[in-house]
Design goal:
two-stranded antiparallel sheet; 68% helix
C-alpha cells in the first residue's frame, strides 16, 4: 500500500485493507510498529476489562485477577507479539461492551459495526446485544413508572419481539449497520471484488486440512485426496456446509437468547460455542474468547458448593438463619485441565504428521474429536454451574 499496490497481492492476506493501512508505519517508521501496536492493544484491553468489572461493583482483588488472566495469558502474548490483529477486535468488542453496560447506544453500535468489518465473526453478538438493550430499556421504563407492566397473556414469541423492537435496539441496529456498510463501501471503491472475496467470502468457503483443530478437516482431506471413493458435487458441498454449520448456529442462537441479560458471560459462552463447533478452528481463534473469559471469571468465583449449613444467631424471641456460601478455589479446574490435555494430544499428533512425516491422519482426527469434546464439556460446565449458582441465590433471597 505504501507504493500504491493492493494488500491482496500477498496470497495469505485475508483481512480488511484498513488493517493494512494501520500497519503502513511498519514500512514508513519502524519494522516493529505492528507488534508494538498490537501489544499496546492488549494493555488497553486489560484496562477495559478492569473498568467493566469496576462498573459492575467487583472488588479490587477480583479485578486484578481478571486482568492478569488476559495480560499474562501465553496465548495472548504469543499471538500479539507475532503480529496478529486479534487484539484490535478484542479492544473494539470490549469497548462496545463497556458502553452498553453503562447504558450507551450510539458509540457502542459504531464500535461493534467496525469490529464486524474487521472480523466477520462478531456478527454472532448481534442478537444478545439487541436483547440486552431491550431488557435494559424495559427495566428503565418499569423503574420510571414505579410498577411492572407485563401482559401474562403474551406468548414467548411476542415478548421476544417486544424486546427486539425498541428505540434503543433500532438505533443500535441502524448505527452499527451504517458503520459496517460504509466501511465496506470505502474498501470496495479502492479494491473492488478482490476485497469482497478475500475479506468475507473466503472465510465462508474456507475449509482447512492443516492446522485445524476441528474434526471436519479429515472429511475435507478425504474428499480432496480420496479419489472416487467420496464423490463430490455442488449439491453435496452445500449439504455438507449446512450440516457443518447447523450445530454452531443452534448453540450460538440458544445461548444468545437464554443468557442475554448477563451480557459479558453471554458473549463468552457464545464465542466458546462458536469456536468449538466451527468447521475451522485454529489456535488464533482461542483469543476471541480469552478476552471475554476474565469478565466471566468473577461469575465463576461466585459458583459455589451450596451446603446446607446454618449459622444460627439467637436474639430475644427470634432465631435468624442464613445460608453460608462456600466457594471452591476454582470450580472449572477439571474441565480446563481436560481442555489443555486434549490440546496437547492434538499438537503431539500434528507434530508427528507435519514435522516427522508420520501417517497419523486417523489418530489426529481422534485427537480433534477429543478436543471437541473437551470444549463442549467446558461450555456445559460453565452453563451448569451458572444455573446452579443462580438458583441458589434465588432461594437465599426468598
Amino acid at each position: 500500500m505504501t507504493v500504491g499496490a493492493s494488500p491482496y497481492e500477498r496470497d495469505t492476506y485475508r483481512y480488511s485493507p484498513m488493517l493494512a493501512a494501520a500497519l503502513m508505519p511498519n514500512v514508513l517508521l519502524h519494522p516493529l510498529w505492528g507488534k508494538c501496536f498490537f501489544a499496546a492493544g492488549d494493555l488497553l484491553a486489560g484496562w477495559l476489562i478492569g473498568d467493566i468489572l469496576e462498573q459492575q461493583g467487583y472488588e479490587t482483588k477480583i479485578r486484578t485477577v481478571a486482568m492478569r488472566i488476559w495480560l499474562f495469558n501465553p496465548f495472548t502474548v504469543t499471538v500479539s507479539t507475532r503480529g496478529s490483529c486479534e487484539s484490535l477486535v478484542s479492544i473494539l468488542m470490549l469497548a462496545a461492551l463497556h458502553g452498553l453496560t453503562r447504558g450507551r447506544v450510539t458509540v457502542p453500535a459504531a464500535l461493534y459495526g467496525l469490529a464486524t468489518h474487521l472480523r466477520i465473526y462478531p456478527i454472532i453478538y448481534a442478537l444478545p446485544m439487541v436483547l440486552f438493550l431491550g431488557e435494559t430499556a424495559a427495566a428503565n421504563r418499569e423503574n420510571t413508572d414505579g410498577k411492572k407492566k407485563r401482559n401474562k397473556t403474551k406468548g414467548a414469541i411476542s415478548r421476544l419481539v417486544a424486546k427486539l423492537v425498541t428505540r434503543e435496539t433500532v438505533l443500535f441496529a441502524l448505527v452499527s449497520a451504517l458503520v459496517f456498510f460504509a466501511s465496506c463501501a470505502v474498501c470496495f471503491v479502492f479494491y473492488g471484488e478482490e476485497f469482497q472475496h478475500e475479506a468475507f467470502l473466503y472465510h465462508v468457503r474456507r475449509s482447512d486440512i492443516r492446522h485445524n483443530f476441528s474434526p471436519s478437516w479429515y472429511g475435507v482431506y478425504l474428499m480432496q485426496y480420496g479419489g472416487e471413493a467420496l464423490p463430490t458435487g455442488e449439491t453435496k458441498n452445500i449439504f455438507a456446509k449446512v450440516v457443518g454449520v447447523a450445530p454452531q448456529l443452534l448453540v450460538v442462537t440458544a445461548i444468545g437468547i437464554k443468557y442475554a441479560r448477563d451480557l459479558p458471560l453471554c458473549l463468552f459462552l457464545q464465542t466458546l460455542g462458536f469456536v468449538t463447533f466451527n468447521t475451522v478452528c485454529t489456535a488464533q481463534y482461542f483469543v476471541w474468547y480469552f478476552c471475554l473469559l476474565p469478565l466471566a471469571f468473577p461469575e465463576w468465583a461466585r459458583f459455589a458448593e451450596w451446603k446446607n449449613l446454618k449459622d444460627t444467631k439467637k436474639t430475644k424471641n427470634k432465631t435468624k438463619t442464613r445460608m453460608v456460601l462456600f466457594t471452591s478455589w476454582f470450580p472449572h479446574l477439571k474441565s480446563l485441565i481436560t481442555w489443555l490435555l486434549a490440546q496437547v494430544l492434538w499438537l503431539g499428533f500434528a507434530y508427528l504428521l507435519e514435522f516427522c512425516g508420520k501417517a497419523v491422519f486417523f489418530e489426529l482426527w481422534i485427537a480433534s474429536v477429543t478436543f471437541l469434546g473437551a470444549n463442549a464439556w467446558l461450555l456445559v460446565d460453565v452453563i451448569k454451574r451458572r444455573r446452579v449458582s443462580a438458583e441458589a441465590v434465588a432461594d437465599q433471597i426468598r
